[in-house]
Specification:
- Helices cover about 20% and strands about 25% of the residues.
- One zinc ion (ZN) binds next to loops.
């Protein structure tokens, strides 16, 4: 659906870094972050954060509506309660519902409800996504160089080609693997009927080997060809840094699928030109650019969340030098984004074990220092990625963060001390 909405293509770069949606902070299965990854890699590796971000861009109601059409009963019931975590399985779905849904990928994006009696005429069918988007998903899910390719699988020459996806639920209660080709769609679920978790249960290691064995048994030496690239799915050259059509400065070019008139057409902006002093110690804007003694230099155009990720891991990168201190231009842009605490939130602090509140912000790449203020009183100077702490007073608290270019951001919280 996101491909059809023009939100992404297989090589679109997604930032797999810490993110928070009004308090919901998804984590990856292994609790690691992967930084900048292309969409196809994120899908092959079942990365949670890119999935949540993609649903956030698409809007969860669009997904809920389609799943309701496909007869997902629990999701229909819970639709008002469901949040972005539904994309990770934070919702109820049955093996029958999921297998039926995957069969739409096997049928060019058209969903038909499964029937248990062969003689029953299957009715109509609903288009869920375009043949082009379906082809792209089938291509990604049929690659075999994936972490969930079954270990020690004696892949025979005649093993049919399949596309598949694995899943392991929270607490290892369910191991899933659903695969398909033109002949069959097969869903495998393993777990206890009581819902009790099993430490050794995993989609990749338990369910997928069984899925492969079933395919090899019922579809051995398959007569079917793989899906053909439809006419409305074309290939183009993109910059690997963003997955967007390259600019003059892009050198690392790769091939990507796209949907003409739908997929993003913005030119890559992975670098940006900055005016710097000859010694590269100062940067200038147009209003403070000296008559001579400057040069143009290209810097990577990192977003604030990636800069925060680099900062936390001590990953070095070339920073834009500090802005000319003599510059008098008042910056119009907004200041650093305060991530913690949360604007408008109420914080309860234990009188017995008072814990300080964390101060954390995302600033743009040319910021070297930020200044924190609590209730208009100076608190601390810090590098943008560094976390600071403070012990608040009870009542309303105003927190301000100013960067070294004078851009400021204020938020307000409320603090209550309670007995617990
Ligand atoms: Zn580029
Ligand atoms: Zn300036």
């Amino acid at each position: 659906m996101s491909i059809d909405e023009g939100l992404l293509t297989p090589k679109t770069i997604i930032n797999d870094v810490a993110v928070s949606y009004a308090g919901y902070a998804p984590e990856n299965y292994d609790r690691q972050f992967n930084g900048q990854v292309p969409m196809d890699y994120a899908l092959e590796h079942s990365l949670n954060i890119p999935a949540v971000k993609t649903l956030g861009m698409l809007g969860k109601d669009k997904l809920i509506n389609k799943l309701a059409i496909c007869g997902f009963e629990q999701i229909k019931k819970d639709q008002r309660k469901l949040g972005l975590s539904m994309i990770l399985g934070g919702c109820g779905a049955t093996l029958e519902e999921l297998t039926g849904l995957y069969s739409a990928f096997a049928n060019d994006g058209v969903y038909t409800r499964p029937a248990y009696v062969q003689s029953k005429k299957l009715s109509g069918g609903t288009r869920l996504c375009s043949p082009a988007a379906t082809f792209i998903i089938n291509d990604i899910l049929s690659k075999v160089n994936r972490p969930d390719f079954p270990l020690n699988w004696q892949s025979t020459e005649h093993m049919p080609k399949i596309a598949w996806k694995t899943g392991t639920s929270y607490g290892r209660r369910d191991a899933w693997s659903i695969g398909y080709n033109k002949n069959y769609t097969i869903g495998v679920w393993l777990g206890n009927f009581s819902g009790e978790g099993v430490a050794s249960l995993s989609g990749a290691n338990t369910a997928t080997p069984l899925l492969f064995r079933i395919f090899n048994t019922i579809d051995y030496d398959s007569d079917q060809e793989w899906y053909r690239q439809p006419a409305d799915c074309l290939s183009r050259v993109v910059c690997s840094e963003t997955g967007l059509p390259p600019a003059d400065f892009c050198t690392n070019l790769i091939s990507d699928y796209f949907l003409p008139l739908t997929s993003p057409t913005k030119t890559c902006g992975h670098l940006r030109e900055v005016f710097v002093s000859a010694d590269e110690k100062l940067s200038y804007c147009r209003s403070c650019l000296p008559a001579a003694g400057y040069k143009k230099k290209l810097y990577k155009n990192y977003s604030p969340d990636i800069l925060a990720y680099f900062g936390e891991r001590d990953i070095s990168f070339e920073r834009v030098p500090a802005h000319n201190p003599a510059c008098e231009k008042v910056f119009q842009e907004s200041g650093p984004a305060i991530i913690s605490p949360r604007n408008g939130a109420e914080y309860l602090i234990s009188k017995k074990n008072p814990e300080p509140i964390q101060l954390n912000c995302n600033a743009s790449s040319d910021v070297g220092k930020v200044y924190w203020y609590i209730n208009n009183r100076f608190h601390k100077t810090s590098s943008p990625a560094e976390k600071q702490f403070f012990m608040p007073e009870e009542g309303p608290v105003k927190i301000s963060c100013t960067d070294d270019k004078g851009r400021n951001r204020d938020i307000n919280i409320r603090v209550r001390y309670i007995d617990f």
